[in-house]
Every structure is written in structure tokens, then in C-alpha cells.
Amino acid sequence: MLTSVAAGPTDAVVRTVAVLDAFRGPDQLQLSEIAERAGLPMPTAYRYLQGLVRAGRVERIGKLGSGAYALTASAHQQQARPFEDLPIRIADQSARVVGSELVKLQAETGQVALLYASVGVPPMRMCTSWAMGVHRGTLLTAPTAQLHALWQAPLDADASGAVIRAFRSTLTKVRAPMPEPRPAAARALDLRRIQEQGHATAAAPVEGWQAIAVPLWCASTVAGAVTLLAQEHLARNVARRARYVDRVMDTAGVISRHLTRVDVRCAV
Questions:
Q1: Which intervals hold domain HTH iclR-type (predicted)?
Q2: Pick from 49, 77, 105: which residue ends a domain?
Q3: Could you list the pLDDT tens digit for every one of the 268 residues in the chain?
Q4: How many CB atoms lie within 10 A of CB 50?
Q5: Are 259 and 94 in contact (CB under 8 A)?
């Protein structure tokens, strides 16, 4: 999870999502439980909870100071229908840059552009912004389980999470690839292989799509991933897939440079 001495827009997104992610279904949680699940100090968790209460996403149950918190009905609906509306708003300046770059990536490739942040304890990857273009209708009619997995999943679930794991491991020793043959899916998500290539490519959670993911940086910290969701029959073409990779890397580079300027002090 990202932390900083003076929280910038990226930190605010990650912390707010972490607090929301602490709630699992209809849970009623004490502040201490929310702070523990979100991996935040209690004063920080309390501050973000109050913002979510004011925004109508969380409600207080019981007396002030001793009561619990729970998701509101509208927040439950958002959990049930991911991608219906952006769950967390990135601060204005960063939102403009992220939105513009994702729309540009989507328009230039004709595919779907997604941005993921790493949130919660244990860490998950969660989609915080996207540009779907003409594919919106198709994606939103995918099976609910697949759509939820595309929206939020553990870091070891797919290419988007694997690229975050791989580049968080660059300062530590990553095991060498196993010498015996392995399935293609396992090879695609091998952390050392991802580090060498600078990106991860593997089947997406939604059937019929491939995910091409590139790390998103804030200074020397991995802040998340930029992912292109490409139609499988198009991504099979080697030359086209290489062009997709180049465009995702360009987009991640622009957003990373912006985040580094805005959030100067970032740490894991």
C-alpha cells in the first residue's frame, strides 16, 4: 500500500479504496477492525471513514464513539454491479491526466483501457478508472463473476496483479524459473519473466479477452498497473500484440511521470 508524509491524490485513492474494501458484504465493523483490514492507523482510517460517511457510502450504526460502521445501500449496489460508476474519484488534476491518457489508449487501439491500484491487506488490485469505448455494452453483459474478477482480485490472479507483484520484487531476490516445462499460463505470470519483459500478458478474467499490463510508478514505488484488455482473436497476432504493448508502455510512462511530479514522496 502507498503511504506518504503528505498524502497526495494517489494516496487518497488507495486509502479510500482500502477502507471500502475492508467491508465484506453486510459487515458491521468497529473502527479498529476497519483500520486493521485496511492496513491504516486508526486516526487515518477514521478520517477516511468520515469522508465516506459524508459521501453516503458508509453509515454509522449506534452511538457516536462506540458504534460500528457499515456500507450504505448504494455502496452495496456498487459492489454488486462493478463498472456501473466510478467507485472512487481521483483528485481533479490526476483524474484529468489519467482519464485523458486512458481515453487516448482506448481510441488508438480500439480495445479497453483500465487502471488498477493495489489496495487492502492482503493486497488486491482494484480498477479505479477505465475507458471502454464501443466495448462497454459487451463487457457489462459478461457473467457477474467474471466482471467482478476483472474489477477486483488478488495480485496473483492475473496479469494486472502479477505485474505489480513482479516490480515490487525488483529489490528482492526472485526465484529462478523452474527448469521443467510448465503450462503456458504459469509461464506468462512468472515474475522473473515479467521483470525481463517489462510487462505481463495473459488471459483476462473475462472470457475472450487478453490482458496486457504494465507497471504504474510513483517515483520508485509501484503504484498500480495500466492494462489493455484486448480481444483474444486480435491479440494472437504477434505484430499487433507488440504494438499494443508499446502503446500501454507509453500510456503508463505518461501517467507515471505525472504521479511522480504530484506525489513526490511515496513509499511502500
A1: 10-73
A2: 77
A3: 333 334 444 456 667 777 877 876 566 889 999 999 888 899 999 998 888 888 777 888 876 556 788 877 655 555 555 554 433 344 445 667 888 899 999 999 999 999 998 876 677 888 888 899 999 888 888 888 888 889 888 888 899 999 999 988 654 444 444 444 344 444 557 888 899 999 999 999 999 999 999 999 988 888 899 999 999 999 999 999 999 999 999 999 999 998 887 654 443 3
A4: 12
A5: yes
What's the grid cell of residue 145? 463473476
Domain count across the chain:
2
22 with 39, same domain: the answer is yes
User: Over the range 85-95, which residues count as b (16 or more CB within 10 Å of their CB) and which as e?
Assistant: eebbebeeebb
Q: Which residue has the cell 505489480?
A: 164
pTM given for the model: 0.66
Please check whether residues 117 and 247 belong to one and the same domain: yes
Q: Which residues contact 8 (CB under 8 A, 6 or more apart)?
A: 91, 262, 263, 264
Domain that holds residue 121: 82-262
With the CA atoms of 31, 36, 37 and 43 taken in that order, what torsion angle do they form, in degrees rounded to the nearest 10? 50
Say if CB 13 and CB 117 are below 8 A apart.
yes
Domain edge (last residue) among 35, 56, 77: 77
Residue 228 belongs to a domain: yes
